[in-house]
Amino acid sequence: MKSLLAHINKSFDHRIRLAIMSVLMVNESADFNTLKELLGVTDGNLASHTRALENEEYIAVEKTFIGRKTNTRYRATAKGRQAFQEHLEALEKMCQLSTSPQEN
């Protein structure tokens, strides 16, 4: 069990960061407003969680302008994809352990 826990990534402990990475794993990228609407979070909340993932180099941020408005897009990096996949695999193994019949 200790080796499984070693693969649980603290960066994905929070449900919003877990959701951000889930969206970015199945989409090439997502913009700020799309993530905000999908997750039902405030601007500040989303900004702080994307910043945390960016600091870990799990997501990349691209800012462009559409007309006079800033458009912020996020994508999962190779490092982020690998870390998230390892996190999911550890969770799956933990679930398998907890649902397998116990030996007496």
TrEMBL record:
Lineage: superkingdom: Bacteria
InterPro entries noted in UniProt: WH-like_DNA-bd_sf, WH_DNA-bd_dom, WH_DNA-bd_sf
Pfam families: HTH_34 (PF13601)
Segments forming domain Winged helix DNA-binding: 16-94
Identification of the protein by name: Transcriptional regulator
Source organism of this protein record: Capnocytophaga gingivalis
